[in-house]
Design goal:
The protein has helices spanning 2-19, 27-34, 36-40, 48-64, 67-90, 100-104, 108-122, 125-139. By secondary structure, the chain is mainly α.
Length: 144
């Protein structure tokens, strides 16, 4: 009877230990892994739809991120959304910014607002580096 109880306790402890590690379980790392392709192709597609997706991904990962890195993910989501909002307000899609005829029609005020959004976005190098470093350290996932 004592032997059966010892085997049962060992089995329960073993199952509890195994269920707590590996194969998922960390919502943050799971979210990064799920969105790894989008994260690794960030900026390759310069369209309203692509940037909306990037902003959504940053926001969803940020909600699951540890407190120490949450602000960086949230900032990335906010500035990426800022690009989309500035494009909408100017009445031109991000993908049309290479069309000189469409850009030429924009007012100085619209161009200034777009440039402000782009500058704010480009000023997030520290945040981008921080999330890449954190994901590697915490999740053992290497982002490009």
């Amino acid at each position: 009877m004592k032997r059966t109880a010892a085997i049962l306790v060992t089995t329960i402890v073993g199952i509890a230990t195994l269920s707590g590690c590996g194969g998922g379980g960390d919502p943050y790392c799971d979210a990064v892994e799920k969105n790894k392709n989008t994260l690794n192709t960030f900026g390759q597609k310069r369209t309203d739809a692509a940037y909306a997706k990037y902003a959504t991904v940053f926001g969803s990962i940020g909600k699951k991120a540890p407190a120490s890195i949450k602000k960086d993910w949230t900032t990335l989501s906010t500035v990426t959304t800022g690009i989309i909002n500035a494009q909408k307000k100017a009445g031109v899609k991000l993908e049309d910014m290479t069309d000189s005829a469409k850009v030429k029609k924009l007012s100085a005020a619209q161009l200034k607002e777009l440039n402000t959004a782009y500058k704010t976005f480009n000023d997030t190098k520290d945040e981008r580096n921080a999330v890449v470093k954190n994901v590697l350290q915490k999740c053992d996932i290497k982002l490009k």
